[in-house]
From TrEMBL:
It catalyses: N-(hexanoyl)sphing-4-enine + ATP = N-hexanoylsphing-4-enine 1-phosphate + ADP + H(+); a 2-acylglycerol + ATP = a 2-acyl-sn-glycerol 3-phosphate + ADP + H(+); 1-hexadecanoyl-sn-glycerol + ATP = 1-hexadecanoyl-sn-glycero-3-phosphate + ADP + H(+); a monoacylglycerol + ATP = a monoacyl-sn-glycero-3-phosphate + ADP + H(+). Transmembrane segments: none annotated. It comes from Xiphophorus couchianus (Monterrey platyfish). It holds the Pfam family DAGK_cat. It is an enzyme of class 2 (transferase). Its main location: mitochondrion. Pathway: Lipid metabolism; glycerolipid metabolism. Keywords: ATP-binding, Kinase, Lipid metabolism, Membrane, Mitochondrion, Mitochondrion inner membrane, Nucleotide-binding, Transferase. This is Acylglycerol kinase, mitochondrial. It comes from the Eukaryota. Its EC number is 2.7.1.107, 2.7.1.138, 2.7.1.94.
Length: 428
């Protein structure tokens, strides 16, 4: 008992050191517990990968090609390379190896390299992108600029979220606050082999080559403020409100007139049956050929092409967003269309700050009074002297007049079965 009293007396006499030691031990224990939880997640994922090696859906996809080339992995390493490389090597690579998948990892060294690599890459059975929005956009842009893009675009793509922005990831997998869990879940969904078609936007200026996007094109005041929030880091939790308020002091009202020309959405064709019908017997084929020979079917006259009916809209808005329906790629829609969303221009300063706070968390959110249009193609003409930038899948581009064309169900991405079922059950 005397020893216990002596310990408490020592802690009381050195309370500053005791408090510091308690804080250090608490943080150290919390850090070690987090590392232990990450190890448990990795172990469980590796066990599932070993089971997948015995009866794996991914090999059904590979057997269709009969080539069995190593799967290509484009890994982002130009931004925070050590962290990105460690995340992939610790959490994704062991799962792929244990599942018996042969991979070829290609690491990017600078911005734009993934685009060039995709333009030169040989045909592969499967493509895995390990990175963020920037790497994914470079990969699909390089892929769809290829001369053989029609054949290459049928290659299934897996997305492993390693970047600071992973906008497509919530549409493909369940997300959590644990980075390790997100990466292992995304890798396991690739091994299960279930895919979903996603739309692509082709964005083309007057001079440059087209850029391709999976999420959308954003332009306006809210985008400009979001790009400057990090400059007010010293204000802590008030930095978002401060950035919006300071922006209103420089210019108000933050409304610009935009001209949008659009073509109506196109009806979605029926989905084709993935299973090939059985081949008819020899006698049936002979009779059919003789019938076509003696009484060939009449050729239908070519119908004259109807001229495209462009509709022009004049919008006064602080923010314009042209986006795909990839937030729910499993949704069965009647028409193939892109969405044009424009915020109303009659906002007060308080409303601008309030809406801006919500858009920082989810840029695709729009207020009830927003203008929402659907189109298959749209042409965006900015007002003269309106300098600024676009955000195309969270990557910055100079704002110029562009034509945005929807490429419906152009690519196929791996998706977790649980996430797909939840997306299908969501009300349309």
């Amino acid at each position: 008992m005397a020893r216990v009293v002596k310990v408490f007396r020592t802690l009381r006499n050195h309370w500053k050191k005791s408090t510091l030691a308690a804080c250090v031990l608490s943080y150290g224990g919390y850090w070690l517990y987090g590392k232990h939880c990450d190890s448990v997640l990795r172990r469980e994922a590796c066990q599932l990968a070993r089971v997948s090696f015995l009866h794996n859906n991914i090999f059904e996809i590979l057997n269709q090609n009969q080539l069995h080339k190593p799967l290509s992995v484009i890994e982002e390493s130009n931004r925070d390379s050590e962290s990105s490389n460690n995340l992939f090597e610790k959490n994704a690579a062991p799962i792929l190896h244990l599942a018996g998948v042969e991979i070829t990892v290609v690491k990017t060294d600078y911005e734009g390299q993934a685009k060039k690599l995709m333009e030169l890459m040989e045909q592969t059975d499967m493509l895995i992108v390990a990175g963020g929005d920037g790497t994914l956009q470079e990969v699909i842009t390089g892929l769809l600029r290829r001369p053989d893009q029609a054949a290459f675009s049928s290659t299934p793509i897996g997305f492993i979220p390693l970047g600071s922005h992973n906008s497509l990831s919530p549409s493909l997998h369940f997300l959590s606050d644990n980075k390790v869990k997100d990466i292992t879940a995304a890798t396991l969904s690739i091994l299960k082999g279930e895919t979903v078609p996603v739309d692509v936007l082709q964005i083309k200026g007057e001079k440059e080559q087209p850029v391709f996007a999976l999420i959308g094109l954003r332009w306006g005041a809210f985008r400009d403020v979001a790009a400057k929030i990090s400059k007010y880091w010293y204000l802590g939790p008030l930095k978002t409100n401060a950035a919006h308020w300071f922006h209103t002091l420089k210019e108000w009202p933050l409304v610009h007139d935009v001209s949008v020309s659009l073509l109506a959405p196109r009806p979605r064709p029926p989905d084709l049956d993935p299973q090939r019908p059985p081949r008819p017997n020899l006698l049936h084929r002979i009779i059919r050929r003789l019938k076509n020979y003696w009484s060939p079917p009449a050729e239908e006259p070519l119908k004259p092409e109807e001229p495209e009916k462009w509709e022009e809209q004049q919008l006064s808005t602080p923010e314009l967003y042209i986006q795909t329906h990839n937030k729910n790629p499993a949704e069965r829609r009647i028409n193939d269309s892109l969405m044009i969303c424009a915020e109303p221009g009659n906002k007060t300063v308080g409303e601008f700050i309030s809406v801006g706070n919500k858009k920082v968390k989810d840029p695709t959110l729009f207020t009830e009074n927003s203008t929402k249009l659907e189109a298959s193609v749209c042409r965006l003409t900015l007002p003269e002297g309106a300098a600024g930038f676009y955000n195309i899948d969270n990557e910055e581009y100079e704002a110029v007049p562009v034509e945005v064309r929807l490429l419906p169900r152009k690519l196929r991405f791996f998706i977790s079965a649980e996430r797909r079922e939840e997306l299908i059950s969501q009300p349309q």
